[in-house]
Design a protein that fits this description.
binds 4-methyl-5-hydroxyethylthiazole phosphate, binds the ligand Cc1ncc(COP(=O)(O)OP(=O)(O)O)c(N)n1, metal-binding, alpha/beta, 9 helices, binds magnesium ion, 211 residues, 17% strand
């Protein structure tokens, strides 16, 4: 009897790093450091409209994640996720609906959905086929200063009422990570707390060790 393959969905746990917009030529080097440190999931988040560059960077990051046995998620763009054969896509309220994303990425890939500070959005996302939900910003975020605030109590409440894995995002650092995990988050999504650290690999290793 052959062992069934481990699903992507079962790997939604641990440090989830998101690439910084300003990485420039060092994008791959920075991503490699975070993955070497232990990040289990990496999201390509690029708000530019440079299609060719986005495609090339997504392809390169996808290969890098495969080499590190990490999941690769594309932000906002389900068509790009499908094109580069990423493990999934992350969508928010401006990025189309779950049914459209599912039609683009197919039944097996991961769809993550931003639910901000609203549990009812998460319940609806779960019912519509989301594979994980994200709440935040838990703490003030230098990357997204205008992000709506989600309290830690929401993570606790969500953990009791949802079946899908929960990601926390927004201002997560080595100083507050333990509280977020204790509240019930399966994943910590982090940009500056890893990529603005003096030693990216060490910051990722420290945060990964909290799980
Ligand atoms: C893991 C994760 N959680 C939340 C977000 C935010 O998504 P969205 O609300 O669509 O905002 P942008 O990131 O697109 O500016 C995310 N990207 N990843
Ligand atoms: C994309 C996003 N959505 C809510 S906060 C945030 C930014 C997270 O970045 P950081 O970890 O630097 O606060
Ligand atoms: Mg988005």
């Amino acid at each position: 009897m052959t062992t069934p393959p481990i699903s992507r969905q079962s790997r939604l746990h641990g440090l989830y790093v998101i690439t910084p917009q300003d990485a420039g030529d060092t994008l791959l080097e920075q991503a490699a450091a975070a993955l070497t440190g232990g990040a289990r999931i990496l999201q390509y988040r690029d708000k530019s409209r440079d299609h060719d560059r986005r495609l090339a960077q997504a392809q390169a990051l996808c290969r890098l994640c495969r080499d590190h046995q990490a999941l690769f998620i594309v932000n906002d763009d389900a068509a790009l996720a499908a094109r580069v054969e990423a493990d999934g896509v992350h969508i928010g309220s401006d990025d189309g609906d779950i049914a459209t994303a599912r039609a683009l990425v197919g039944p097996e890939r991961i769809i993550g959905v931003s639910c901000y500070n609203r549990l009812e959005l998460a319940r609806r996302a779960e019912a519509a086929g989301a594979d994980y939900v994200a709440f935040g910003a838990l703490f003030p975020s230098g990357t997204k200063p205008g992000a709506v605030h989600a309290p830690l109590s929401l993570i606790r409440e969500a953990r009791q009422s949802l079946a899908v894995p929960i990601t926390a995002i927004g201002g997560i650092t080595q100083d507050n990570a333990d509280r977020v995990i204790q509240a019930g988050a399966h994943m910590l999504a982090v940009i500056q707390g890893v990529f603005s650290a003096p030693d990216i690999r060490a910051a990722a290793a420290d945060l990964s060790a909290r799980f």
